[in-house]
Structures are given as structure tokens and as C-alpha cells.
Amino acid sequence: MNAVVSTNGTRIERAPKLNRTTRSLPIELDWARLDAARAAFTTRRVDLIDARFLLTDVRPEAGQVALARVRRLCHHTRLQDPHGRRVTLFPGDEIIVSFGDRYAPQQFEAYVPDTIGPCHLVASGGIAAQATSWHSRIGRGPTEIDVLGVLGDLNGMPLTLARYAIDTPLEPVRPDKVIAVAGTSMDSGKTMSAAYLVRGLARAGMRVGAAKLTGTGACNDFYQVLDAGAAHVVDFTDAGYASTFQADAEDIENINACLLNALARRNVGVAIVEIADGLLQRETAALLSSERFRASIDAIVFCAQDALGAQSGVDWLHARGHNVVAVAGKLTAAPLAVREAISVVDQPVLGLDGLADPFIAPTLLGKPYQDARSA
Q: What is the pLDDT of residues 7-19, one digit of tens each?
């Protein structure tokens, strides 16, 4: 085994490089074995009936669907299944996951491994990757897994999330109104704010849809906005991505177009689009600096943990031509922080109750309450 040392000083074992002078034959899969394996949320669109072989002599790539065995439980002790249930894991369990990179300052930095073999479960939504660093509060590190191979079809081609992605019409369409929710960082209150805004607009009589545009595949945010009253919910995994970390700016713009199309086809009048992580994250910064993306949305609700973050974020977004209509997020939990924010931003500062209010929420669309039901 080749060893590397992570940024937090933890020793990580990497799998050795495969000897390419010999090639392993695909292993025929028994359906009973696949049926017994625990499939992850990220693979929910994959039709496992297409899986006929286990490919062990392929180079892993983001989005490939793999069969893995749990070796040692550490941080993640449960796996989110396609229906959102947290399935308890045991050593020796076989799980169906997807390769993907991960960027999460509060959890893991991780990358698709070079070879089939030992790596980590870096997200409970079912992401297999090689963790290189993690937050100090994750004392035991990532759960260890052994990837047994990539699922292959009858022709020996790897199954990928992209193969089962939703179709994007040639003619671009989008809901009548689109509000993006962005923030200073991970855990700034974006998902909660998006969910309560969905609730406020739904209570005002609107047909509201929600999309998670970037991030790491998991069901938490997906089901939270659904429970809040969203008529239809999609995320980047529906567009064929296990994670958007390291995706090109054009790819994320295309994901955005794909998801807005999907919501429009469900007759959604208003879409709430959440953008993961913070303004300084590479993919987020590129997306919010994109003219194509700016033209696809009508407004932004910006989430922050304190007043300075709110002021800096609003200024950053204004410099790129965005229409910021409200400040929200974790800062609104503290009355003192709210008063500080009110003193440095021109936008209304809305807590969860304000976002969920059927009289207030429609004003973020430029609509008084009495016009809301025509959206």
C-alpha cells in the first residue's frame, strides 16, 4: 500500500496501481446479490436491471456506479437509500454507490481514486472517494470501504449516473420566476432558508418547485424542501452528477438549464434554486460570475452567519450584476446580529418566520400578496 498524509496529519492508505500488463475479466453478477446490496440515494435513477457484470479493470471516473463492501465504520454509520431512509450499515455490507469528488469544509475534501479498491464513503448519500482531509470534529475519519468493481451492462460498458439523467429539451424553458439562494459558506443557513421560502410562497397559493443546483449527492436538502411544500424537487444527481465539485462552469450552467427545464415541464410557476457552499468556492464563484446564469434567475436571497458576511456577500453579488432581494440565514437567529445587518445592508433581513409568511414571501418576487395566486 502507498501511504500519504492528509492536511490534518492523518495517515491514509491508498490502493496500489493496477498492473496493466494483465487484464481482469468481468465478473458476472447474480441478481440476488445486487438485490441484497443497499443502494444509495445518488443511484436512485439507475435501473439496476441493466447491471450484468462487475468490472474490476477500469479506471474509476466520477459518476460511475460501483459495488462496494463496508470494511470499517467511522464517521458515516448510515447510508441514505433512494427513498430517503437512513439505512444502518454493518461491516461486511455490500452497498451500491457512485464515484465522486467532495468539497465540504465542515466535513471532507475527497477525490475519485485512481484505481478500484480501498477508499472511503465520504457522504451518506453514497459517494465513494479518497478522503484527503477533513474537519477536526470528525475524530475517527471517514468510513472505510472496498470498491469491488464498477457495475457494467451486457456489453461491458460502465453504468453511470449520466446514462439515466433526465432529458433536456432542445428549446430552453424555465419557470416564470426563479430565485436563487446563495450564502457565505457551508452551513450558513441556505437550505433552511430555501425550505421556508418555499413554504411561504406555497402558502400564498403558488405552485413552487425547488432545485439543488450544486453540492454533494444526499437526500437531506431534497426532502426538506419537498416537506416544506414544493410541488416538484430536482437536484444535480437528476442531471447525472454525483457531485458538482470540479465540474466545469459550462457543465454547471447546463445542469441549471436542465433542472429549470424539468421544473417548468411540471408547470411550476416559481423555482427556488439552492447553490451549495460559499462565494469563495471555485464552482460557486464561477457560476455566480456567469452572465448565462445571471440571465436565468430573477433574484437572490443571500444567507450569512453574521452582519459582516452579509454586507460583503451582498456587495460581491452586486458587483456581478445580481439583484439581491433579501438577507437571511443563521444570523437571523440572533436579534443583535439582525440589527447589525440592518445597519449595513439595504435589503430586508428575514428570519424563517418572515420567509414562510404568505404576505411577505411574494414581495421577494415583486408581487403584493393579492397578486400572488396568479404566479
A: 444 434 443 333 3
